[in-house]
Model the fold of this input.
Amino acid sequence: MQAGVQLDVPTREEWERVWEACEYATFFQSPTWARIWEAATDGRVRACPERLTFADGRQAILPLCHERRALGLLDRRVASPHGTFGGWLSEHELELVHARVLFDRLLDPSASLVWRLNPYDALALAAGAERGLACKPDVTHALDLTPGPEALLQRFRNGYKNDIRKARRGGRISVAPATSLDDWRAYFGVYQDTLSRWGLSPAQGYPWRVFEVMAELESPHVTLWIARVDGAIVCGELCLYACRHAVSWQAATAAAALRTNVAKVQIYHVIEDAFRRGCRWFDFNPSAGLHGVREFKESFAAQALPAPLVYVDTRPKRWARALASRLAVPYAALDLTPLSDILAQAAAAAPSELQHPQPGRGEAQRSAGGKRGTSTPPTAERARHSGVFGSREARPVSEPPSVAPGE
Done:
């Protein structure tokens, strides 16, 4: 640890307070997300946050978790459980000098780590590129909510716009938060049915315990949106909220309702709600390499943002990964790309009006060390609102439904 930097462990209350104050935070960096996985895995995932206090008095929290794997032989740290956005949190305006120290701590080779970079933290991306970091490329898709829902609706693909308006006028569809455990169970039934429809076993999705824990927490930052057609629950969207960020972590739609446009109506309703909450971003989450899922999101004019994965392997993990790669185990081999190239490609591909997010006033200066300041194609909709989407989207490309030993 660099001279003048102090390391200690924050309480959950301190972690929560900093998370709530951090403008670039996502729900995945919250103590609640860690608590969900601690409970759902009977302690195989456990929180191990760290706090760094710098010589100038500024602080940052690393919301790390520890995952027990292979009877402890392949234990690892994760910046956030299940391949979701991770990285530091701070209520202070950090600079590159702080980010370099934080990178040193996170990339410590004595412990394995999986870290999906937070696409809303421009400083972390800039510092990683400066460091020459190599990552596994991936993107998420997000809407900047600043223009407001009605203006965003005008940008949707024409068919989507018309489908949403027509379905809303029809009066058959209603969308509201789940209010009981029975609502959660009904959604879980839709989720299980869609897994079967796509040829996946229940073991390839999330178990009921994950949903039960979320429901029992009754957190204001967790909302299961339930959509009904003629009073019957046929669709759901599990959304997670932070200071300026809302994310659709999982969604599923019953087969019989795919052509009612209920999924589109539900998403637009959730976007309206996120805007009213004061969120800047509505995030559709990474797409696990599924073309149909990506096409569906882009029909809402969602912007692709870089969300690459960083891996730190200990020597035993490197041996395990090498063996798994030789045995052609899926997801074991890592095809890494310099982060600077990933960011350059993302900037070149983005339309001029949809450049990389600048969440706060003065954000541009942070990277320099200053202040932070027609109708849906059936295949696309079915991919977005299916068991495949629900399980693979929630376990992004780093965490497929059946996690590879080498991962």
